[in-house]
C-alpha cells in the first residue's frame, strides 16, 4: 500500500487546528501540529514532512518569514499557506518566496485538499477568490510594488514581529543570537525605511500589515 503524504500543520488557533486535522485525516498522515513559527521551523527540520500547511499570522515568527528557514532546511518541502487574510500583497509574497499554495480559511473545506495535491504534483494553487488580482500584481515591475513590507529585509521583519510582541532588544538578541545593539540598529533602519518616528508607530505598522496578530 502506497504511504500517505506526510503533512505538518501550523496554526495557533486550537479550534481551527482541530477542524483541519479532521479534514486532512482521510487523505494524509498528519505528523504534528504546532502553534508558532519557530516551533514550525524546528518541527519541519526534525520530521521532514512532504507538505506544510501554515497560517500566516503566528506568534514569534509569521508563516511568510518562516518560509526561507523551511526551504533552507528542506528545499523540496511544499508549503501551502492557509490564512484569513484576503490580501493580494500576502499572496504575492507567499508565491514569490516559493510557497506552493495560498488558500483562505473560509474556503479550506473545499480548497485545501486540492491545494495540497497540487503542491505534491509540483503545481501552485492560488485561491480563485484572489487569482486575478494577484496575477495582475505580479505582472508589475518589482519597483512598483505597493507592499511596504517588501521594503524590509527578512531579518528586519523577524525583529519587527518580536518588537511588536513586546520583546526587549536584549530578549530579541538572545532569541536570534545577535547583540542587543544589532537589534537596535535594525530597528532604526526600519524606522528610516518606513518613515516612522516612534516604537508605537512600528507596532502599529506590524499589526496593520499582519506581521503580528492583535
Q: Would you give an account of this structure?
A:
The protein has 214 residues and is of the alpha/beta class. It is 52% helix and 13% strand. It is built from 10 helices and 6 strands. It has a 6-stranded parallel sheet, with helices on both faces. α2 packs parallel to α3, α7 packs across α10 and α8 packs across α9. The longest helix has 15 residues. It is globular, with a radius of gyration of 17 Å. The mean pLDDT is 89.
Name its key features:
six-stranded parallel sheet, 214 residues, alpha/beta, 52% helix, single chain
Strand content: 5-15%
Dominant shape: globular
Largest sheet features: 6 strands, parallel
- The residue ranges in which pLDDT falls below 50 over 5 or more consecutive positions are none
Q: Strand order of the main beta sheet, please?
A: 2-1-3-4-5-6
The topology string of helices and strands comes to EHEHEHEHEHEHHHHH
Please give the radius of gyration in angstroms: 17 Å
SS content category: alpha/beta
Itemize the secondary structure elements and their pairings.
Elements: E1 6-10, H1 14-24, E2 29-34, H2 37-47, E3 51-54, H3 63-73, E4 78-83, H4 88-96, E5 101-104, H5 108-120, E6 125-126, H6 128-139, H7 154-164, H8 169-176, H9 180-194, H10 199-208
Parallel strand pairs: 1-2, 1-3, 3-4, 4-5, 5-6
Amino acid at each position: 500500500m502506497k504511504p500517505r503524504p506526510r503533512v505538518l500543520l501550523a496554526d495557533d488557533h486550537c479550534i481551527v487546528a482541530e477542524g483541519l486535522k479532521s479534514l486532512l485525516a482521510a487523505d494524509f498522515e498528519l505528523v504534528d501540529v504546532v502553534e508558532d513559527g519557530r516551533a514550525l521551523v524546528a518541527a519541519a527540520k526534525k520530521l521532514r514532512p512532504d507538505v506544510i500547511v501554515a497560517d500566516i499570522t503566528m506568534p514569534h515568527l509569521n508563516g511568510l518569514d518562516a518560509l526561507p528557514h523551511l526551504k533552507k532546511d528542506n528545499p523540496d518541502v511544499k508549503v501551502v499557506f492557509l490564512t484569513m487574510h484576503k490580501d493580494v500583497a500576502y499572496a504575492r509574497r507567499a508565491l514569490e518566496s516559493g510557497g506552493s499554495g495560498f488558500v483562505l480559511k473560509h474556503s479550506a473545506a473545499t480548497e485545501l485538499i486540492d491545494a495540497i495535491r497540487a503542491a505534491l504534483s509540483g503545481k501552485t494553487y492560488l485561491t480563485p477568490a484572489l487569482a486575478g488580482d494577484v496575477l495582475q500584481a505580479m505582472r508589475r515591475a518589482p519597483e512598483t510594488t505597493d507592499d511596504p513590507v517588501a521594503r524590509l529585509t527578512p531579518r528586519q521583519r523577524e525583529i519587527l514581529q518580536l518588537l511588536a510582541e513586546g520583546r526587549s532588544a536584549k530578549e530579541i538578541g538572545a532569541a536570534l543570537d545577535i547583540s542587543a545593539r544589532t537589534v537596535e540598529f535594525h530597528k532604526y533602519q526600519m524606522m528610516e525605511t518606513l518613515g516612522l518616528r516612534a516604537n508605537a508607530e512600528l507596532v502599529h505598522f506590524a499589526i496593520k500589515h499582519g506581521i503580528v496578530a492583535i
